[in-house]
């Protein structure tokens, strides 16, 4: 019965019925969705989203590919006008933000001016795309982060196109696309390669998912912020093993969550590995949209349509509860304030236990929760000078404190709590030490608007939390360099220095190479830890500082009550906030861009290059080619993430990419980041496997190096690959479990392809990355169950030959021949 289907599955059903053409979508697909209970986790179904969402880091390679595709078809005598996205595509320029200035007057303006200078080539390319391609809308810089713009401006709930009304759905190249599910809009993140296919009219293929019903009960603690609720639910869902599944929320507790709370929870979806966390539209959602940019007519159509097709529900009416694959229950009353870290978002630490937990981390052996600092060195204090004043650093000292855009900008309550806390702290005479790298990167100008309107922004600024711009910054590695004296002190004492941020990404070394411990926290706790200057504090028993008279000030003295926050929120977060930013275009309208059907590539550009992927484009279907006498480029272990394969942060001065940019007469200050240069295949190929955290068994220590087996030399990965390609030697990669986990990143497949990698042999793969490898023509081969490189006694220095038949099927066993006369089978998931 369709009315017993989970509401997220009903959205898939509607799409299948509307798009059923007997070719892409068949009657069998519709029947499979109708029979979801029996066919879940078995049937493969096509899904046509209503739109595609790109951000500039992942959007620029997609658009560069389309521009290169136009060139290729034009050379083959085909009209390049045919190359246009068929699916409406929105590209939001938000990830370009690099922090150059902090604690300066007009910091945001100065950073945005630097962005214009640094990213002019890229911005001109984006503007050309908006003019040259049909169905492409570019949202210019200084408007907001991709997920925030998606929530505030792009979300429709229902689409009205060509006389049809149907649910708004989206796939995006940002992992936080899932945030939109908090508004009852089905959407999830895909890789750049899949997004290009959808843009060109192909459906997304997915296995009909399990749907986990998450029943919320109980009342929320007065001290718990939405971030605490997010981290609490994240922990529950991780323990429930919801990886690859849909999660759909229901129960009486749902009504206690505002629309902003729901989007914050949905945003953390990648951290517990669910595909989506879906909150069906209810009265709370409707109330939210009444305050935003919906006209009365649009609102009426939306409400009538959702109720007519049974996509609207009441959380309090248990008779409406659908049939789920399984149900888990979370008592909201059990959630207490927590931070998460020091290396993984799932490692939650109750705030009262933070001091003890950090000390335990110092003692534990090196791992996800350990740094193995000898007892005699745990109390070391290192003096240093900063701006003529002596300060001291020790283990647990906070050197980065960032209120950033990823998770919290959509929820005014937590940002206002941070602002009100800052106000009370300043009034109490508290300050933040000037060497701590503080920043405030809101997801959109809306946040700045209500922080200004509420009167708290000046107090955040007084504590160093200046608005540095709008977009992703610290969480993607775009942190301003720490003062040299701070870096020297950390290295001198081998200190475990800390970063505290209000995002949801904090892999070791991602914020800054020398900052080993990084904690996720709510915005007010970020401010609190910045004031104390250390994570080694018990807020209940120890003061966070002293007022000018020397009196102790505790966190409870400056923490605002929920009533204070709600009162300010009601008077500042109003409908005008959502409308005001629509007119903010800044320098975009004055930016020149080419007027041409084909993009005029500049051979001197270090940002935009025509990639070589279509240089051999032909009308004939290519056939698989076997791999003969390949060398292993890398011998990797478990959990190699896409951050290891294709870094997004700063470009190290001693890297192959740096040498390339220096050959183009650029200074290190002009390097920008890997993410910003994803439109340049020369940089990205050299940046492949350039992570300082890469652990290659050929080398025995971390770093972007490998062994060139024929010569025995240790080289940069790119240099070794270049030698192999020059000698005509194909390459493979040996790896362990969960190869390609983490953020979906198309260059994590494109880069190895351009290095000459033909196959990756691993114990297991992250599904999306495996699909990317296939899309780039790299064979993802999986060891048979119970086997791995060690059990087969592989040292990685052998020569590998893989016979690939012209026709093959998924999970077909292939034989891998090794020159040392060892032979084993591997299962190919193609």
TrEMBL record:
Top-level division of the source organism's lineage: Eukaryota
E.C. numbers: 4.2.1.3
GO terms of molecular function: 4 iron, 4 sulfur cluster binding; aconitate hydratase activity; iron-responsive element binding; metal ion binding
Alphabetical list of Gene3D superfamilies matching this protein: 6.10.190.10, Aconitase, domain 3, Aconitase, domain 4
Pfam families per record: Aconitase, Aconitase_C
Cited CDD domains: AcnA_IRP, AcnA_IRP_Swivel
InterPro entries, sorted: AcnA_IRP_Swivel, Acnase/IPM_dHydase_lsu_aba_1/3, Acoase/IPM_deHydtase_lsu_aba, Aconitase/3IPM_dehydase_swvl, Aconitase/IRP2, Aconitase_4Fe-4S_BS, Aconitase_4Fe-4S_dom, AconitaseA/IPMdHydase_ssu_swvl
Reaction equation(s) it catalyzes: citrate = D-threo-isocitrate
Annotated Aconitase A/isopropylmalate dehydratase small subunit swivel domain residues: 658-784
Record keywords, A-Z: 4Fe-4S, Cytoplasm, Iron, Iron-sulfur, Lyase, Metal-binding
Cofactor or coenzyme needed: [4Fe-4S] cluster
Sequence ranges assigned to domain Aconitase/3-isopropylmalate dehydratase large subunit alpha/beta/alpha in this UniProt record: 36-533
Compartment(s) where it occurs, according to its Swiss-Prot or TrEMBL record: Cytoplasm
GO annotation, cellular component aspect: cytoplasm
UniProt family annotation: Belongs to the aconitase/IPM isomerase family.
PANTHER family, alphabetized: ACONITASE/IRON-RESPONSIVE ELEMENT FAMILY MEMBER
NCBIfam families given in the database record: aconitase_1, PRK09277.1, PRK12881.1
Protein name according to UniProt: aconitate hydratase
Organism: Astyanax mexicanus
């Amino acid at each position: 019965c369709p009315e017993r289907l989970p509401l997220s599955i009903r959205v898939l059903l509607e799409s299948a019925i509307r798009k059923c053409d007997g070719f892409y979508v068949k009657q069998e697909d519709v029947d499979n969705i109708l029979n979801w209970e029996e066919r879940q986790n078995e049937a493969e179904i096509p899904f046509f989203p209503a739109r595609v969402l790109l951000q500039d880091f992942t959007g620029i390679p997609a658009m560069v590919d389309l521009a290169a595709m136009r060139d290729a078809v034009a050379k083959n005598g085909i009209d390049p006008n045919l190359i246009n996205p068929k699916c409406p595509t929105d590209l939001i320029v938000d990830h370009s933000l690099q922090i150059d200035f902090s604690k300066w007057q007009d910091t945001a303006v100065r950073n945005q001016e630097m962005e214009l200078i640094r990213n002019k080539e890229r911005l001109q390319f984006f503007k050309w795309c908006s003019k040259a391609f049909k169905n492409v809308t570019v949202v210019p810089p200084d408007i907001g982060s991709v997920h925030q713009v998606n929530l505030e401006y792009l979300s429709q709930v229902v689409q009205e196109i060509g006389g049809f009304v149907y649910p708004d759905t989206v796939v995006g190249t940002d992992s936080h696309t899932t945030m939109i599910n908090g508004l009852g809009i089905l959407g999830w993140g895909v890789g750049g390669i899949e997004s290009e296919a959808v843009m060109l009219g192909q459906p997304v293929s997915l296995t009909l998912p399990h749907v986990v019903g998450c029943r919320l009960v109980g009342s929320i603690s007065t001290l718990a912020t939405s971030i605490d609720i997010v981290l609490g639910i994240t922990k529950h869902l991780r323990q429930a093993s919801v990886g690859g599944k849909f999660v759909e929320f229901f129960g009486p507790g749902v009504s206690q969550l505002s629309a902003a709370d729901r989007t914050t929870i949905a945003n953390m979806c990648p951290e517990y590995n669910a595909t989506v966390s879906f909150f069906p539209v209810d009265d709370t959602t409707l109330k939210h949209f009444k305050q935003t940019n919906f006209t009365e007519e649009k609102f009426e159509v939306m409400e009538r349509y959702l109720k007519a097709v049974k996509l609207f529900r009441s959380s309090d009416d248990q008779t409406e509860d659908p049939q789920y694959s399984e149900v888990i229950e979370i008592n909201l009353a059990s959630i207490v304030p927590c931070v998460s870290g020091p290396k993984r978002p799932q490692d939650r630490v109750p705030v009262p236990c933070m001091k003890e937990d950090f000390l335990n981390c110092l003692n534990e052996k090196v791992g996800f929760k350990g740094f193995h600092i000898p007892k005699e060195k745990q109390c070391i204090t290192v003096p240093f000078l900063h701006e003529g004043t002596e300060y001291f650093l020790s283990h647990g000292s906070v050197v980065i404190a960032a209120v950033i855009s990823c998770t919290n900008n959509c929820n005014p309550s937590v940002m206002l709590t941070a602002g009100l806390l800052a106000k009370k702290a300043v009034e109490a005479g508290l300050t933040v030490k000037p060497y701590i790298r503080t920043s405030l990167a809101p997801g959109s100008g809306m946040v700045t608007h209500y922080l200004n309107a509420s009167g708290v922004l000046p107090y955040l600024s007084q504590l160093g939390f200046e608005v540095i711009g709008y977009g992703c910054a610290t969480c993607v590695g775009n942190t301003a360099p720490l003062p040299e004296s701070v870096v020297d002190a950390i290295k001198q004492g081998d200190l475990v220095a800390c970063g505290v941020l209000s995002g949801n990404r904090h892999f070791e070394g991602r914020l800054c190479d020398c900052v080993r411990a990084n904690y996720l926290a709510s915005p007010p706790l970020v401010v609190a830890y910045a004031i104390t200057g250390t994570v080694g504090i018990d807020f209940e028993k120890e003061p966070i500082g002293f007022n000018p008279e020397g009196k102790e000030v505790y966190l409870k003295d400056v923490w605002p009550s929920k009533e204070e926050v709600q009162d300010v929120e009601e008077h500042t977060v109003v409908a005008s906030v959502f409308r005001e930013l629509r007119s903010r275009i800044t320098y975009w309208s004055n930016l020149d861009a080419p007027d041409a059907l084909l993009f005029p590539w500049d051979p001197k550009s270090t940002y935009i290059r025509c990639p070589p992927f279509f240089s051999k484009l032909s009308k004939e279907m290519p056939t698989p080619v076997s791999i003969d006498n390949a060398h292993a480029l890398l011998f990797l272990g478990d959990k190699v993430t896409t951050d290891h394969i294709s870094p997004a942060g700063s470009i190290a001065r001693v890297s192959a990419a740096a040498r390339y940019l220096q050959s183009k007469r650029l200074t290190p200050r002009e390097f920008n980041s890997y993410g910003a240069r994803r439109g340049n295949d020369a940089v990205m190929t050299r940046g492949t496997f350039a992570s300082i955290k890469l652990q290659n068994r050929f080398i025995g220590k971390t770093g972007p190096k490998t062994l060139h087996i024929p010569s025995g030399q240790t080289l940069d990965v790119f240099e070794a690959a270049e030698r192999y390609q020059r000698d005509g030697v194909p390459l493979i990669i040996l790896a362990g479990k969960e190869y390609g986990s983490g953020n979906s990143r198309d260059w994590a497949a494109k880069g190895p392809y351009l290095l000459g990698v033909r196959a990756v042999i691993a114990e297991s793969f992250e599904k999306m990355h495996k699909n990317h490898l296939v899309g780039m023509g790299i064979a993802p081969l999986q060891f048979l169950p119970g086997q791995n490189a060690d059990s087969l006694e592989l040292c990685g220095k052998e020569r590998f030959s893989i016979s690939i038949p012209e026709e093959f099927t998924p999970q077909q066993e292939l034989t891998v021949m090794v020159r040392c006369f060892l032979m084993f089978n591997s299962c190919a998931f193609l």
